[in-house]
Amino acid sequence: MQVIRTIQHVSGETLTIQLPADFHATRVEIIVLPIEDEKPNQELPAGVDSAYAGFVRPKPHLTEEDRQLLAQRPNPLAGTVRTYIAPFEPAVPPDDWIDNP
What we know:
Blueprint: H1 64-72
């Protein structure tokens, strides 16, 4: 299968595609998709492939207050581990399931 991919600048309502001389096909499929404006290049974190640049979100802006809180407690979830002793027991007392007349 021979494939031709081209990016054209459209200035009106008509688009003409020039096919190579060796392109022999009696039927073709034409798909026209608009290309979104390219986003400005952002600096990617180390080890991130540039093919995934569109999926990498920029770091959120931190206020000075946020920076101070982060410096005081760099891992805010530390020490918040909870343990469930009986994972296969009901989460609520069985009496809560009885209908009251």
